[in-house]
Amino acid sequence: MNDMNITLQYLINEAFTKGAGKEIFGKNKKNREEAAEKLTAWFSSYYGGTHDEAAKENILSLSISLLKENKDEFTANISQGIRIYTRDKYPVVRRIEHLVKHLNSKYEFGLDLTFLEQLKARDGYDRLLKILKYLHSGSHTREELSKTFGISERALSDDLNTLKDGFKFMGTTMKISELERGQTRTVH
Prior knowledge:
Elements: H1 8-17, H2 20-25, H3 29-46, H4 53-61, H5 64-69, H6 71-84, H7 89-107, H8 114-117, H9 124-135, E1 140-141, H10 142-149, H11 153-165, E2 167-169, E3 172-174, E4 178-181, E5 184-187
Antiparallel strand pairs: 1-5, 2-3, 4-5
Helix pairs in contact: 1-3, 1-7, 3-4, 3-6, 10-11
């Protein structure tokens, strides 16, 4: 098949209905097709975090060669879309991760999966632990934390308040402190 005929829509369907799709999303073809449909719907609604419907529809018809040429923009738009997604991010990130792994293994995209790692929190506790681990590496601004974990400033404020009050995990209470330096709020 010619690279110009291989579109993102084709790649999504291929990733879920063949190969590793069976291992991850089950042997039932209907379940795998449903996962592909959900990812297609996500790209149509959230890709790029924009309300430009034409741009969202066009992403599904982009050829593999154009996607490869614009890998950085592709991953940035995925991140932005995940960030504005208001429901449980874990299933979406898991589907996107599967697609990216498929692109890397079959089409040698060479996309770095680390941009998805912080976004894969299964629930609030999982995210709190990931935030604590991230903060262990040093100080970070609220904006940086919000962007890294794909959550709104409000959700981040709730998480930081929980962490400031003390988060109990495996019998140990962990706390953070918040400092203000100039105009930028830094979290430790």
